[in-house]
Recover the amino acids of this structure.
């Protein structure tokens, strides 16, 4: 039986999934917090292709204005690669003086040195990650790097394609993403340039108070596992067509319980049936954690400017 919506409103946040869409399609999920019940509600889920609104970007702008959004998390780059805005006489990648390129190049060099130090250390065998613990792997700073990760670093940083956040995601999640989802993170590897440019155009009309961040649904799922909110089996089941719907249902139920979040039955059906709608729900969850000041920046002690890419901190939340 569905719960009546409370009347008192405190905060509204949203997630928008653009990846994989066709014909200007995108997916919206809106979460709303009510202090009188100390509870979050999934206010609505929208699929642009299902609505007779033309052009579709009008729907996105009205969504932001009508809901008076305070925070928004998207699944595509909010910044451009260095080469697109650089006006220097190009000396080539190896000698590029651009701060983003130079810092990223130095970080890759540091990773190579760190790998040598770890392989040379006496604690190597004790620190190696076993096959059964793949989802709990440490970052590339703490264990011997895999051959696939080394190959990725050897390819280097391409300033016309990559951003500094790419190197940091590789460092923390490369092997996990490859082993679990057969996926390698690249900022512009799976992005519709048209949709991205439309969003940047529309952002000029957004309220100045709106905070916009980016995240990644695969990383969100890994973090949900790390904090014991979902199981390893559930994540793996997402990779198969016959088990994915049930896995999405399991994840939604776990999120409801862990975060005091209520999802209406009609919305559950949509989230289970449409993978990209489900991803927009995960992105909205990151927006929720941003509201609670429970996210972290992958840059940590590095000088790289990647503050718009956020990863949720699910500590203190468990099923």
């Amino acid at each position: 039986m569905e719960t009546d919506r409370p009347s008192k409103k405190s905060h509204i946040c949203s997630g928008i999934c653009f990846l994989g869409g066709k014909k200007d399609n995108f997916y919206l999920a809106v979460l709303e917090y009510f202090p009188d019940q100390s509870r979050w509600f999934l206010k609505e889920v929208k699929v642009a292709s299902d609505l007779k609104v033309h052009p579709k970007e009008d729907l996105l702008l009205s969504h932001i204005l009508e809901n008076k959004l305070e925070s928004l998390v998207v699944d595509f780059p909010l910044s451009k690669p260095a080469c697109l805005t650089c006006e220097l006489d190009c000396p080539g990648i190896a000698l590029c003086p651009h701060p983003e390129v130079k810092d990223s190049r130095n970080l890759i060099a540091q990773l190579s040195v760190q790998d040598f130090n770890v392989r040379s250390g006496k604690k190597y065998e004790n620190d190696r990650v076993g096959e059964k613990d793949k989802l709990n792997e440490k970052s590339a700073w703490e264990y011997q790097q895999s051959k696939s990760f080394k190959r990725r670093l050897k390819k280097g940083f391409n300033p016309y394609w990559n951003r500094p956040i790419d190197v940091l995601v590789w460092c923390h999640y490369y092997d996990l993403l490859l082993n679990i989802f057969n996926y390698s993170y690249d900022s512009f590897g799976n992005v519709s340039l048209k949709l991205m440019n439309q969003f940047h155009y529309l952002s000029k009309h957004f309220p100045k108070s709106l905070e916009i961040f980016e995240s990644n649904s695969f990383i969100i799922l890994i973090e949900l596992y790390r904090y014991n909110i979902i199981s390893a089996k559930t994540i793996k089941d997402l990779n198969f067509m016959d088990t994915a719907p049930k896995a999405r249902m399991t994840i939604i139920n776990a999120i409801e319980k862990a975060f005091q979040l209520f999802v209406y039955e009609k919305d559950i059906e949509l989230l289970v049936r449409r993978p990209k709608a489900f991803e927009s729900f995960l992105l909205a969850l990151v927006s929720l954690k941003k509201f609670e000041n429970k996210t972290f920046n992958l840059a940590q002690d590095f000088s790289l400017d990647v503050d718009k890419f956020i990863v949720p901190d699910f500590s203190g939340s468990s099923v």
